[in-house]
Amino acid sequence: MARATSVRRLAQAAFEVALAREGLDRWEKDLADVQALLSNEDFAAMLESPQVPARVKLDGVGMLLRDVSPRVRNFVAVLVTRGQTRRFEAIFEEFRRLADDRRGIARAEVVTAIPLDDERRGRVAQGLEAIVGKEVILTERVDPAIIAGVVARVGDRLIDGSARARLRDLRGALATRPL
What is the pTM of this model? Predict the structure, then answer.
């Protein structure tokens, strides 16, 4: 729980600086660049290694992130100094959630049995927008196991309109029904 609170606190601090200074779009782009850098396993291992001096780590971050805003570099330097770079992905996700909330956007993971064409993608997005009351950005995944239909997760809401769920419900209803 303390880690989740720390992640939220760090993301909130970054969010407030972004609002007051460079703006959400710039920070989100810069943080995405940082995320791409930290997803390199060799670089991430170097940052987490106790054998590598802090100065070397900070110099590496400064050199590789020279195109991001100085405040974002300073934010990353704080994480490096505290040995918390492995938590960056969670911080970035929370920052993005805060930014999306501010913009009136919800992100939805949509699972379908087959890939969606543009028309169906639009209908799914409109349906989810009607449910959550926000513009929805879809992330799609294909899973043939759902048989047909759509399973969507928007924040902590799960909307299961899959054939697999309907069959499960039908099986449960039939099992409890007296003969």
Answer: 0.73
Whether 127 and 106 have beta carbons less than 8 Å apart is answered as no
Contact 128, 143 (CB under 8 A): no
2 secondary structure, DSSP code:
H
On the question of pLDDT at 155 being above 70, the answer is: yes
- Identify the bridge partners of residue 105 per DSSP, sorted by sequence position: 135
Torsion of CA 147, 150, 154, 157, to 10 degrees: -70
Per residue in 108-141, pLDDT (tens digit) is 999 988 899 999 999 989 999 998 899 999 999 9
Question: Which residue bears the tokens 């009136």?
Answer: 104
Neighbouring-strand partners of residue 137:
107
User: Helices 24-38 and 88-103 sit at what angle, rounded to 10 degrees?
Assistant: 160
Distance CA 54, CA 5 (A): 25
98 Cβ contact list (under 8 Å, min separation 6):
11, 12, 15
CB 26 within 8 A of CB 18: yes
